[in-house]
């Protein structure tokens, strides 16, 4: 099954959180921070959203940083994704 977002929405797949600190300390599940880095899986068409013209700035395959509690988590074919508005994406990682 394929997910196609509408309007200015973007579908992302979260990247795994680091399990070790830079100094080599292994983190337990509770100590890990919620990941804020993800890969863009699908992008809506943009266009007119709530009376404003929206140009989509991200594309499929981009690695992005997004707001910590943004979006709605969904499960499709056993895979977990987050659907959020483009405004919730803070930056593209290059």
Automatic annotation (TrEMBL):
<comment type="subunit">
    <text>Heptamer of 7 subunits arranged in a ring. Interacts with the chaperonin GroEL.</text>
</comment>
<dbReference type="InterPro" id="IPR011032">
    <property type="entry name" value="GroES-like_sf"/>
</dbReference>
<dbReference type="InterPro" id="IPR018369">
    <property type="entry name" value="Chaprnonin_Cpn10_CS"/>
</dbReference>
<dbReference type="Pfam" id="PF00166">
    <property type="entry name" value="Cpn10"/>
</dbReference>
<comment type="function">
    <text>Together with the chaperonin GroEL, plays an essential role in assisting protein folding. The GroEL-GroES system forms a nano-cage that allows encapsulation of the non-native substrate proteins and provides a physical environment optimized to promote and accelerate protein folding. GroES binds to the apical surface of the GroEL ring, thereby capping the opening of the GroEL channel.</text>
</comment>
<dbReference type="InterPro" id="IPR020818">
    <property type="entry name" value="Chaperonin_GroES"/>
</dbReference>
<protein>
    <recommendedName>
        <fullName>Co-chaperonin GroES</fullName>
    </recommendedName>
</protein>
<comment type="similarity">
    <text>Belongs to the GroES chaperonin family.</text>
</comment>
<dbReference type="InterPro" id="IPR037124">
    <property type="entry name" value="Chaperonin_GroES_sf"/>
</dbReference>
<keyword id="KW-0143">Chaperone</keyword>
<keyword id="KW-0963">Cytoplasm</keyword>
């Amino acid at each position: 099954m394929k997910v196609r977002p509408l309007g200015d929405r973007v579908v992302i797949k979260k990247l795994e959180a680091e399990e070790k600190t830079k100094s080599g300390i292994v983190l337990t599940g509770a100590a890990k921070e919620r990941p804020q880095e993800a890969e863009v899986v699908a992008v809506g068409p943009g266009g007119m959203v709530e009376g404003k013209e929206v140009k989509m700035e991200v594309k499929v395959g981009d690695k992005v940083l997004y707001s910590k509690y943004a979006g709605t988590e969904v499960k499709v074919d056993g895979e977990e994704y987050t659907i959020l508005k483009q405004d919730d994406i803070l930056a593209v990682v290059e």
